[in-house]
Design a protein that fits this description.
The chain is of the alpha/beta class. It contains 7 helices and 7 strands. The chain is 31% helix and 19% strand.
Length: 187
């Protein structure tokens, strides 16, 4: 499992139970016995696309919570790169610098992350808005050379409290992930 292009887990399968450690030190059970988990595998800490995407989730955090969804967000960055970004979001942010979970779930890195023309409008918007937010002191820049590189692809997994994978999405480019509305449609 886990070689490029392989879908390692699919709807209907049982997600292997584990306990992850957030940057905050919080222990996070996946699956969560009390609520549905939206496990997001994002790119690197400070990624402009990821930042913009997660801000949309932050704005609707109450709606997600009311739907019984817990956000658990994994980055292929070390804790020290991720920690400065963790204070800005009300979600569990998990460092995975060795990309263990990415490999296990078949989430890959590829040049198409940035070269796919479908990603370009999102990249331009994210860089423009991200630069504006950094100038206002509301966002932090990414590392110049993020561990794990800049070619990661995103993935989303919706996991029931019993571990059943309800839905999943393997991104085809850097800006290919569920919106809040797309997530809520799957509940």
């Amino acid at each position: 499992m886990g070689y490029p292009g392989e879908v390692a887990i699919a709807p209907g399968q049982v997600f292997p139970a584990r306990e992850l450690t957030a940057v905050s030190g919080e222990r996070v059970a996946v699956p969560d016995p009390k609520q549905v988990v939206h496990l997001q595998l994002r790119r690197f800490a400070g990624c402009p696309i990821c930042h913009l995407h997660l801000r949309s989730f932050e704005r609707r955090a109450n709606e997600l919570s009311a739907a019984g969804i817990r956000e658990v967000i994994v980055f292929h960055s070390p804790a020290e790169e991720l920690a400065p970004h963790a204070t800005q979001l009300p979600f569990a942010l998990i460092p995975d610098p060795e990309r263990r979970l990415y490999r296990e779930l078949g989430v890959e890195s590829a040049p198409r992350a940035l070269l796919d023309p479908r990603a370009w409008p999102g990249i331009a918007r994210a860089v423009l808005l991200g630069t504006f937010e950094m100038l206002r002191g509301r966002a932090r820049p990414p590392a110049l050379a993020p561990q794990g590189g800049r070619l990661g692809l995103p993935a989303d997994f919706l996991i029931a409290s019993d571990g059943t994978v309800l839905a999943c999405k393997y991104g085809e480019h850097a800006d290919d992930q569920w919106s809040v509305d797309e997530l809520l449609e799957r509940i």
